[in-house]
Specification:
This protein is an alpha+beta fold and about 210 residues long. About 50% of the residues lie in helices and about 15% in strands. The protein contains eleven helices and four strands, in the order αααββαββααααααα. Strand 1 and strand 2 form a beta hairpin. Helix 7 packs across helix 8. About 10% of the residues are buried.
């Protein structure tokens, strides 16, 4: 539910019991509040959220937000008798953390439930390593120096990427599908010099045990 979700907000605040004009005014105020929250500076936003939320719980795959209904009602122009307790409303949002190198991104809501954690940099590096290996194998390039010169790259760069050719096919498929663990990054693979030769051992080493 969002402040612009008219049907959800109507149910939570029991707007169906109000005269149509009053309900419409509350929904309009809620939409205005939603816009204001996105424009507020961080200090104002934190203060406003602190007044509206009674609890926030963060778990590995979800965030649970408990909204205090009395301040929410007041924020959209509705009154509540002092002796009445409108209670709270709980919202559960799926979350997902994606990692690209040293950068981490928190995806919240429906996008988190659907997003595939495809690491385009890692996919490109694996594909490039295989292409380089085939060029060396077929004789299209005589050595690493020729490969590097042809592609305008340092020889050390080519050398550090070539071991990606020897990843187990199942690991490559996992990377292509975006199902790898968040910490399985290009940097980790390039610097993990002790990666086993056996494919089953590779999976265990990289946290991909079935």
């Amino acid at each position: 539910m969002t402040l612009k979700d008219q049907s959800g907000l109507s149910a939570i605040l029991a707007l169906g019991r109000l005269p149509p004009r009053a309900a419409e005014a509350a929904l309009k105020a809620a939409a205005t509040l939603s816009d204001a929250l996105t424009l507020n500076d961080p200090v104002e936003l934190r203060a406003r959220l602190h007044s509206l939320l009674s609890r926030v719980e963060i778990a590995e795959t979800m965030i649970t937000v408990t909204v205090a209904l009395r301040p929410l009602r007041e924020a959209v122009g509705l009154t509540t008798p002092d002796d009445a307790d409108p209670g709270t409303h709980t919202i559960v949002l799926p979350v997902r953390i994606t990692k690209r190198g040293v950068e981490q991104k928190l995806i919240v809501g429906a996008e988190a439930a659907a997003i595939e954690a495809k690491d385009e940099a890692l996919i490109k590096a694996v594909a490039r390593a295989h292409a380089w290996f085939q060029d060396l194998k077929s004789g299209k390039a005589r050595d690493l120096t020729e490969l590097a010169k042809r592609d305008g790259l340092p020889a050390s760069y080519v050398r550090s990427h070539l071991p990606l050719t020897f990843l187990a096919p199942s690991i490559v498929s996992t990377i292509l599908d975006g199902r790898q663990p968040p910490d399985l990054t290009l940097k980790r693979l390039m610097y993990q010099t002790d990666l086993p030769i056996a494919w089953s051992d590779q999976r265990r080493s990289l946290g991909l045990e079935d």
